[in-house]
């Protein structure tokens, strides 16, 4: 919050880096951008999926289910960003 003259207060919000909504934003470790709650959850999930896909690839396991989940999540994030 920013305090103005005589104690007036105005809420200073920045837009979400993905969807552009002006709401409370959250920081994710290792990222400079800030995201709304919904987008931050999707970005964190995508980071975890990438880690799991890499681990499964190195272990020689099938990555198809993880890759399909990642593709669906990516499409949802892209759709949200384009509708901003």
Q: What do the pLDDT scores average to?
A: 89
Q: How many helical elements?
A: 2
H/E series, N to C?
A: EEEEHH
**Which strand order do you get reading across the main beta sheet?**
1-2
How much is the radius of gyration in Å? 18 Å
Percent of residues in helices comes to 40-55%
Features:
single chain, 84 residues, mainly alpha, two-stranded antiparallel ribbon, two-stranded antiparallel sheet, 2 helices, 4 strands, elongated
Briefly, what is this?
The protein has 84 residues and is mainly alpha-helical. The protein contains two helices and four strands, in the order ββββαα. The protein has a two-stranded antiparallel sheet.
Describe it.
There is one protein chain. By secondary structure, the protein is mainly α. It has one domain (2-82). Helices cover 50% and strands 10% of the residues. It has 2 helices and 4 strands; from the N terminus they run ββββαα. The strands form 2 sheets. It has a two-stranded antiparallel sheet with strand order 1-2. Helix 1 (37-59) packs antiparallel against helix 2 (64-82). The protein is elongated. The two termini are 25 Å apart. The model has no long low-confidence stretch (mean pLDDT 89).
Give the SSE map.
Blueprint: E1 2-3, E2 9-10, E3 26-27, E4 34-35, H1 37-59, H2 64-82
Antiparallel strand pairs: 1-2, 3-4
């Amino acid at each position: 919050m920013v305090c103005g003259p005589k104690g007036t207060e105005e809420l200073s919000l920045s837009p979400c880096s993905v969807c552009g909504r002006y709401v409370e934003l959250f920081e994710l470790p290792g990222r400079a951008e800030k995201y709304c709650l919904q987008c931050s959850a999707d970005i964190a999930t995508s980071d975890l999926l990438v880690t799991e896909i890499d681990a499964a690839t190195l272990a020689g396991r099938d990555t198809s289910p993880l890759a399909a989940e990642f593709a669906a999540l990516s499409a949802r994030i892209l759709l949200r960003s384009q509708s901003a």
